[in-house]
Amino acid sequence: MHRFHGIIGIVLILGLAFLLSNNKKKINYRLVLSGLALQLIIAISILRVDAIRSFFQTLGKGMQKIEHFAKAGVDFAYGGIATMSYDGTPQKFEAPGSFVFAFNVTATIILVCVLVAVFYYLGIMQRIVAVIARGMNVLMRVSGSEALSNVASAFVGQVEAQVMIRPYLKGMTKSELLASMSGSLACIAGGILIVYANMGAQAGMDLAPKLIMASLMAAPGALIISKIIYPETEASETMGKVKLEVKSEYTNLIDAITHGAGDGFKIAMNVIAMIIGFIALIALLDWCLLSIAHLFNPNFDLTLDWIFGKIFYPFAWAMGVPSEDLSSTATLLGQKLTVNEFLAFKNLTSNTVPIVTEKGLLIVSIAICGFANFSSVGMLIGGIGTLAPERRPDLAKLGIKALICGTLASYLSASIAGILV
After folding, report:
1. 102 lies in a domain?
2. Is residue 8 domain-resident?
3. Could you give the 3-state DSSP secondary structure of residue 91?
4. Domain extent for 208
5. 18 within 8 A of 24, measured Cβ to Cβ
6. Which has the closest alpha carbon to 108: 62, 152, 151?
7. Count of CA atoms in the C-beta half-sphere (13 A) of 82
8. In degrees rounded to 5, what are phi and psi of residue 82?
């Protein structure tokens, strides 16, 4: 019966969304059921259908190749640096298997951003997004703008996904705006997904199929939760139509490559800066908490991880995480929401916060695979606000709702996937 424990998580998540709804009478239950069915189909296809599972495993190996190609570039830049091998002896950075977080992650993000820019210039990315969005538009009967935004979020970054619907931002309803923001926070950009998959590969974890599944399930999941919390009550300008007309901003292929590399470097530096800043801040807070706790009980080691482990324990249990992984999963959920998903994945793949069961690894990988954290909300509001300044007041009001929707959407996907294992 433990297989179906995740049903408790589904009921809990949908129940919380229902309680937070601003108009319970207007909830479109057909949209909710069709979205759940779509999520289930995606999960079954990847986890149970051999041909599809093999395809995504092959795709995962391709992601590892991306890191291999990226390393060819970074080897040239940092070739004179020595690193430590697994046996503790020094070796050149160019040696196979060498890994320095800042160098390898930077190279991978830059290469993926270059590839995305090239695909964008050639019109390939727009076509892929439009085809998938049309399917979601038909199945879930959501508007074209929110379908496009949610699907695009599974491939590109938060703000880039909004650029694809820039012509519609001004006239979007508040429900559509929340759905679009929720999708950007529930999904994860392709470049970051590849980084996480390769971090897992370094630790012997086959995370690629799990993360691809999480990103695909997040799009309908975000629509489900957002449409429960903020049902549509206004007339949409794009209901029933999906029309994507995004002209490339690049002059030629070389321009696309140079812009992609520049954008990738900015993203990579931002990631490294956040990791350094947040880990240092956590160390400071842990020292303060530990010092205060020891004043009352010298044997009680109070830390943020201990606090997260208690607060998020009910969610981990409800999603069906095995008992031996409950505390660690709760800690990772807390780190992902309050700090960022990068720290959570780093602690997961480095075994700093160990997950010992296959089911626990599946559930937690999907649950933390998304941009839903407090710092991302600020970046998202700023990004969309730049594209549509007149919507800033609405964006500010919807920010926390979008964070809740994005978080619950990831938990919903994790609960569904856990039932199948």
Report:
1. no
2. yes
3. strand
4. 4-84+110-239+255-420
5. yes
6. 62
7. 5
8. -100, 145
Residues sharing a CB contact under 8 Å with residue 376, sequence separation 6 or more, in sequence order = 158, 185, 340
Please list, residue by residue across 210-245, b when 16 or more beta carbons sit within 10 angstroms of its beta carbon and e when fewer do: bbbbbbbbbbbbbbbbbbbbbbbeeebbbbeebebe
Across the chain, which has 421 residues, the per-10-residue mean pLDDT values are 85 96 94 94 91 82 78 84 73 76 80 84 80 80 84 75 77 92 88 80 82 90 96 82 66 91 84 79 90 91 87 95 94 88 88 92 94 83 83 90 95 94 82
138 neighbors 293 (Cβ within 8 angstroms): no
Q: Give residue 325's pLDDT.
A: 95
For residues 75 and 91, give the distance between their C-alpha atoms in angstroms, rounded to a whole number: 13
DSSP 305-368: HHHHHHHSHHHHHHTT--GGGHHHHHHHHHHHHHT-HHHHHHHHHTTSS---SHHHHHHHHHHT
Instruction: Look at residue 262 and tell me if it is in a domain.
Output: yes
Number of domains comprising the chain: 1
Report if residue 272 sits inside a domain: yes
Residues 6+ positions from 33 with CB-CB distance below 8 Å:
none
Tell the burial category of 251 from Cβ atoms under 10 Å away from its Cβ (0-12, 13-18, 19+). Answer: exposed
* CA 124 vs CA 14, 94, 163: distances in Å: 36, 34, 16
- Model confidence, pTM: 0.84
Q: What is the pLDDT of residue 303?
A: 86
Q: In this predicted structure, what is the pLDDT of residue 322?
A: 94
Task: With beta carbons less than 8 A apart as the criterion, state whether 319 and 411 touch.
Answer: yes
Count of other CB atoms within 10 angstroms of residue 383: 18
The CA distance from 96 to 90, in Å, is: 13
